[in-house]
Write a structure and sequence with these properties.
The complex is a heterodimer. Chain A is α/β, with parallel strands linked by helices. Chain A has a domain of about 130 residues: Peroxisomal Thiolase, Chain A, domain 1. Helices cover about 35% and strands about 20% of the residues of chain A. The longest helix of chain A has 16 residues. Chain B is globular and about 45 Å long. In chain B, a hairpin with a 4-residue loop joins strand 5 and strand 6. Chain B folds into 2 domains: about 60 residues, no CATH class; about 70 residues. By secondary structure, chain B is mainly beta. The chains are: A alpha/beta, B mainly beta. At the A-B interface, helix 4, helix 5 and strand 5 of A face strand 4, strand 5 and strand 6 of B.
C-alpha cells in the first residue's frame, strides 16, 4: 500500500452558539482546509462526513454538506463513532487512499450541539451507552467517567488536585487559543473554593471544572496519496499509524474501570503500524473530555506506567516545555467538544505542530505526533500517529 | 383476523425505559416476582448479565434464567447532582457496578446509603426496587 498524507487542515472557531446551519458551519473548516492545501473542491475525489446523530434534525447530513461545499457528484458518506467520529473518518480515508480507490478525500467533522438544551444533550449523550440496560438508571457521560475517576483514585492514589492540575494546564493554553470556547484562567484555588463554580459537584468525584463544555464547531482534513502529496505540498504530514478498537458498551462487560482497554489496544496497533513507541512521540493530543480522561490517556498510551500519570502532571512533564507535551492547544477542556469535529481538530493541532506552524504553542522541532480520540466512555478507541517522514 | 398484541413489558424497566420490545422480556416478570435474573447458555454454559437472548460464543439461543444471588464486590460508583431529561426527580442518585465474578451488574446504589460508608471492594447485594413512578429497577444494598 502507498503512503498517505494530510496536506490541508481547517477548523472553525468552537463556539457556544453558531449562528448558522450545519452546512454553513461545515463550509468554514472546509474552506480553510482546501485553501491550506492549495486545491479546489474539484480536486477532491470523495468526502466523508463525521458527526453524531440527533443534535440537529438533518438525516443523512453527508449529502447536504457535500452539495453545499461543491462536492457533487463525488461519492460522500457518513461515519459515526460518537466523539471519535472524525478519527474514524480519517482511518476510512486512509484506507481508501492507501488502497488506491481514491487519491484525495476530505474528512469533514461537524457538530452543532446548540440546537438542543444542555439537559437534552446529556440525555442524548447518555444514550450513547447501553439504552436497554444502563440508560434507564439515568446515566450521563460525566457519571461514567466519574466512575472511572473513582476507580483510578482508589487503585492508584490519584487525587482531586491531580485532576484539577490537568484543567489548570489546559487553561494555560486555552487562554491563547483564539479558536477555543473557554479562554479564562483556571487555578487550583478555584477548585478549593466551595463558592467557585469550578468546584460545584457534577457527578462525584468530578466537578464543573473537570468537565469540558459543549460547543458548535467543524474540522476538515484533506487526505491524499503520496504522488498527489509530493506534487501539491511542500510539507506533507504522513499518516504513520491508524489504530482503532472497540469495547463493551455496558460497563458490566469491562474488565477494568481504572483504564480504557480500547484506547490501550488502539495505541498498541498504531505504534506497531508506525514502528515507533511512546518514547518516540514528540507531541500529543489526547481526548480530555474530562480531566480523568487525560490521566487515563497518559497510561493507555504508555507515556506513564499504570498509576504513574499523576507523576507526569505533578512534574509538569506534559506542559509545552516538558518531556511529552500534551494538549498544548488547550484540549477539549478549553476548546470545547463539538463531538464529530473533535478528532479532526486534534489532528489539525498535531499537523500544525509537525509543520512548525503552531505559533505561540509550538513545541521544539517535533518529528512524530500522536492523536488519541475516544468515542463514548471507551466504547471506541482511536489512536493516530503522524510524522514528517 | 385479530392482530397479535405487541409485548411491551420492558417499558416498565427503570425510571425511563428506552426499549419497547426485547426477547428477554421475562426479566420484567422476574422483577415483579422480586427476583433479579441473569441468563445462562444451556449449550456452552456462559452466564450473561445483562441477560442476553442469544449466545455470541456458541450461537445458541437456548437460555435459562438464573437468579443473581449472593454478594458482589463494588467496582466503582458515582453520585449524580445533575440528571438527564426524565430523571430530574431522582436527583441525587448513584450509579454503580458490582462484580459477581462470572458476570458484573450495572445499576444504582440504594438511596438510603451514606456515601461516607461506601468503599470500593465492599460486598453488596442486588435487590428489586419499585420507583415512585411505579416503574421497576434494581439497586445495590450493603451486604
Amino acid at each position: 500500500m502507498g503512503k498517505v498524507a494530510i496536506i490541508g487542515v481547517g477548523q472553525s472557531k468552537f463556539v457556544r452558539n453558531y449562528p448558522g446551519s450545519i452546512r454553513e458551519l461545515a463550509f468554514e473548516g472546509f474552506k480553510e482546509a482546501i485553501t491550506d492545501a492549495g486545491i479546489t473542491a474539484k480536486d477532491i475525489d470523495a468526502s466523508i462526513l463525521c458527526s453524531a446523530p440527533e443534535y440537529d434534525k438533518q438525516r443523512s447530513p453527508a449529502a447536504v454538506v457535500a452539495e453545499y461545499l461543491g462536492l457533487n457528484p463525488q461519492p460522500t458518506f457518513y461515519v459515526e463513532s460518537l466523539c471519535s467520529s472524525s478519527s474514524m473518518g480519517l482511518k476510512m480515508a486512509y484506507a481508501m487512499v492507501a488502497s488506491g480507490v481514491h487519491d484525495a478525500v476530505a474528512v469533514i467533522g461537524l457538530q452543532k450541539m446548540s440546537e438542543i438544551s444542555s439537559a437534552e444533550s446529556q440525555e442524548r449523550m447518555g444514550r450513547g451507552a447501553d439504552i436497554q440496560w444502563e440508560s434507564p438508571f439515568g446515566t450521563m457521560m460525566p457519571a461514567y467517567y466519574a466512575m472511572h475517576a473513582q476507580a483510578h483514585m482508589d487503585k492508584y492514589g490519584t487525587t482531586l488536585e491531580d485532576l484539577a492540575a490537568i484543567r489548570v494546564k489546559a487553561s494555560t493554553y486555552g487562554q491563547i487559543n483564539d479558536r477555543a470556547v473557554f479562554r479564562k484562567a483556571i487555578t487550583q484555588d478555584m477548585f478549593a473554593d466551595p463558592k467557585n463554580r469550578m468546584s460545584d459537584p457534577v457527578s462525584s468525584p468530578l466537578r464543573v471544572g473537570d468537565c469540558c463544555a459543549n460547543a458548535d464547531g467543524t474540522s476538515c482534513l484533506i487526505v491524499v496519496s503520496e504522488e498527489r502529496a509530493k506534487s501539491l505540498c511542500k510539507k506533507p504530514v504522513w499518516i504513520l499509524g491508524v489504530g482503532a478498537a472497540s469495547a463493551s458498551v455496558n460497563l458490566a462487560g469491562r474488565d477494568r474501570l481504572h483504564g480504557l482497554k480500547a484506547a490501550e489496544q488502539a495505541a498498541q496497533q498504531a505504534y506497531a503500524m508506525a514502528g515507533v513507541g511512546p518514547k518516540d512521540i514528540d507531541v500529543a493530543e489526547v481526548h480530555d473530555c474530562f480531566t480523568i480522561a487525560e490521566i487515563l490517556a497518559y497510561e493507555a498510551l504508555g507515556f506513564a506506567e499504570p498509576g504513574g500519570a499523576k507523576e507526569l502532571i505533578r512534574g509538569k512533564e506534559t506542559y509545552k516545555e516538558g518531556s511529552i507535551p500534551v494538549n498544548v492547544d488547550g484540549g477539549l477542556l478549553s476548546k470545547g467538544h463539538p463531538i464529530g469535529a473533535t478528532g479532526g481538530s486534534q489532528v489539525r493541532s498535531i499537523v500544525l505542530q509537525l509543520r512548525g506552524e503552531a505559533g505561540d504553542i509550538q513545541v521544539k522541532d517535533p518529528q512524530i505526533g500522536l492523536v488519541h480520540n475516544i468515542g463514548g466512555v471507551g466504547i471506541y478507541g482511536n489512536v493516530t500517529i503522524l510524522g514528517n517522514e | 383476523m385479530s392482530e397479535k398484541k405487541e409485548d411491551v413489558r420492558f417499558e416498565k424497566f427503570g425510571t425511563v425505559s428506552f426499549t419497547r420490545t426485547t426477547r428477554v422480556n421475562n426479566f420484567i416478570d422476574h422483577l415483579e416476582n422480586d427476583k433479579v435474573m441473569y441468563t445462562h447458555c444451556k449449550t456452552c454454559g456462559a452466564k450473561f448479565f445483562p441477560p442476553r437472548a442469544d449466545c455470541a460464543g456458541c450461537l445458541s439461543s437456548d437460555m435459562e434464567w438464573c437468579e443473581v444471588s449472593g454478594t458482589g464486590k463494588l467496582v466503582s460508583y458515582s453520585q449524580l447532582q445533575y440528571a438527564p431529561v426524565g430523571f430530574e426527580a431522582d436527583v441525587p442518585y448513584s450509579i454503580a457496578l458490582l462484580d459477581y465474578g462470572e458476570y458484573q451488574v450495572f445499576g444504582r446504589l440504594t438511596g438510603d446509603l451514606d456515601l461516607a460508608d461506601v468503599k470500593i471492594g465492599m460486598p453488596m447485594t442486588t435487590v428489586v426496587n419499585e420507583l415512585s413512578n411505579g416503574q421497576l429497577n434494581f439497586i445495590f444494598k450493603k451486604a
